[in-house]
Amino acid sequence: GEVKFVASTLGYSPSGRIRIMRGDYDLYANEYRNCVIIEPPYDTHCEKNWVPIFRKNQDTGLDDELFIYKWMPMEIGRVLRNEETGTNTLEIIERHPIHAPLFHRVRGSAPFIDTAEGMLGVVHLSEEYAPRHYYHIMVLLEKQTYRPLKYSRTFTFRTLGVEFCIGMRIFDEKYTFWISRHDRDPMMVQVDMAEIPLIFDF
After folding, report:
1. Is the pLDDT score of 109 beyond 80?
2. Does the pLDDT at position 85 exceed 80?
3. Dist. CA 167–CA 154, nearest whole Å
4. Among 59, 184, 49, which residue's Cα sits nearest to residue 123?
5. Distance, CA of 169 to CA of 184 (rounded, Å)
């Protein structure tokens, strides 16, 4: 019943380093609210592409807000609040080994969606060209544990260049992707699910 956002920010980061901010969208007032900066689990200069995930807490019955922090090994963290300092820090609470090729370079990307087979999402990696080339991989995770199960070959949406997937859904046996091109040109792309098979096991 809530709409939330996750973003990278430098301007609002008290450390002067690029950090993750999370907060709520107020759709009626057109405002961002309850914004907090989250410090990473390691000493880094730039943070981006954390994947928000939700998992039902067996004790409370409520959804825990978690983040996939990185992909090799796959690290999942929970935000801890230090009331004395007023800071929020991502604490890594579990790791899953990944030995698949290329995953040491994988980041983000869009929030995962619930399917009959598991939680399905899109991640990306890049090659240094001018402009930089982005490639995407579909990833299937186990529902409750988020343990990696299967993944696809790499693909692009439209062209070799700067492309991010900012959201996806499944309609009528088609993947519907919303992508950002060069960080400014949004586009919707539809693809038959059979065109991107999950053929590799982790």
Report:
1. no
2. yes
3. 17
4. 49
5. 21
Q: How far apart are CA 89 and CA 50, in angstroms?
A: 13
Quote the tokens at residue 182.
């060069």
Rounded CA-CA distance 167/176 in Å is: 8
- Measuring CA to CA, which residue among 55, 84, 59 is closest to residue 68? 55
At position 15, the amino acid (one-letter code) is S
Tokens of 53: 């995930």
pLDDT at res. 107: 93
Reference 178, options 166, 194, 160; nearest CA is: 166
Joined tokens for residue 5: 């956002």
Query: Which residue shows structure tokens 């107020």?
Result: 26
The pTM (predicted TM-score) of the whole model is 0.92
Report the b/e string of 131-169 with b at 16+ CB within 10 A: eebbbbbbbbbebeebebbbbbeeeebeeeebbbbeebe
Q: Are the C-beta atoms of residues 66 and 38 closer than 8 Å to each other?
A: no
Amino acid at 81: R
Burial, 115: exposed, middle or buried (Cβ in 10 Å; 0-12, 13-18, 19+)? exposed
pLDDT in tens, 29-45: 999 999 999 999 999 99
Three-class DSSP category at 201: strand
Question: Structure tokens of 115?
Answer: 């399917």
- Matching residue, tokens 């001018």: 130
DSSP classification of residue 18? B
What is d(CA 55, CA 142) in angstroms, rounded to the nearest whole number? 11
